Amino acid sequence: MKKKFFLFSVALLPIVALSSEPSVYGTIDSNGISSKSVPSQEVQTLPQNGESVHSSPIRYREPEKSSSTNVSSEDYEGVRSVLQSYETKIAKQDERMRQMEDEIIKLREYVEESRKIQLENQEKVKSVVGELGTLIDSINKSYVPKEKFEQLENELKQNKNAISKQKSSAVDEKKTEKESTPSVTSKQDLSSKDSASLMKEADTFFENKSYTNAEPLYKELLNRNYKPAKVNFNLGEIAYSKKSYASAIEYYKTSISLFDKAAYIPTLLYHTGTSFEKLGKAKEAQGFYKALKANYPTSPEAKKVK
C-alpha cells in the first residue's frame, strides 16, 4: 500500500512543479493576445518506467521584424513614379503627333489648292494663246496683197467724185500746213542729219498735224530702216488723214507684221477696219473690228465699234 502511494506521489510532483512555473506563452489578456515575450527556458520530461528525469532545453526565439514591407512600399512608389513619367512623355508625344497630323492636313490642303490654281492658270494661258492664234489668223486672212491694193487704187481713181474731193481736201490741207509750218527740208539736208534727230523732227511735225512736212522725213527714215514699225504706222496715219485708204492699209499691214505689241495697235486695227469699210469691204472691216474688241475690249477704239 505504501509502495503504491509513493509511486502516485512521484507522479504528481512534475505536475505541481509545472503549475508553479510561469506559462511558456505568457499571460493571455481578455483579447487572447500575449502580454509579453516568452523567454527561453527548460521543460522537464516525466520519468517513465523508473528512469531519471532528464532535461533538454527548448528555446523560443522571438521573430525578427522584416523590412520587406517597407521595401515593397518604396519599390511601389518608385515604379509608380516611373510609370507616371512615361505616361507624361507618352501624352506629350501623342500631342506632338496630333499637331503633326494637323500640319500634314494643312499642307495637303495647301498643295491641293496650289495644284488647282496652277491648273486654272494653265487653262487661262491656253485660252490666251488660242485667242492670239485666232487674232493672227484673222489678220493674215484679212491682209490684202499689194496687187489688190493697186486694183483698189485704180477703182478709186475711176470714181471722179471721190478723186475730186480728195484733191480739194489735199489742196486745202497743203495750204493750211504751208501757212502754219515752215517748208520741207531738202533731200540734201535730210541726208546730213542723223536718224534720231530726224525722227524727233518728224514726230514734232506729226504731233502738230503738219503731215506734209512729216511725210518726207518718215520716208527718209523708212529708207534707212530706222524704227520701221513706228514709221510705217505714222505714214499709214498720214495716208488715212488724206483718205488714201489703200495706201494706209498697206502701211498698217507692214507695221503690225514687224511689231504687234505696240501701244498704237488698237488705233491701227480700228483705222484698218475703217479703211476697208470706206473701200466697201465690210467683211474685211468686221474681221479687224472683232480682233480689236476681242483683244483690246477696254480701249477707246473698241468702244467706237458698234
TrEMBL record:
It holds the Pfam family TPR_16. Residues 1-19 form the signal peptide. Residues 83-117 form a coiled coil. The keyword Magnesium does not apply. Residues 34-55, 160-169, 181-195 have a biased composition (Polar residues). Residues 170-180 have a biased composition (Basic and acidic residues). It comes from the Bacteria. Residues 34-77, 160-195 are annotated as: Disordered. Keywords: Coiled coil, Signal. SMART domains: TPR (SM00028). This is Tetratricopeptide TPR_2 repeat protein. The lineage of its organism: Bacteria, Pseudomonadati, Campylobacterota, Epsilonproteobacteria, Campylobacterales.
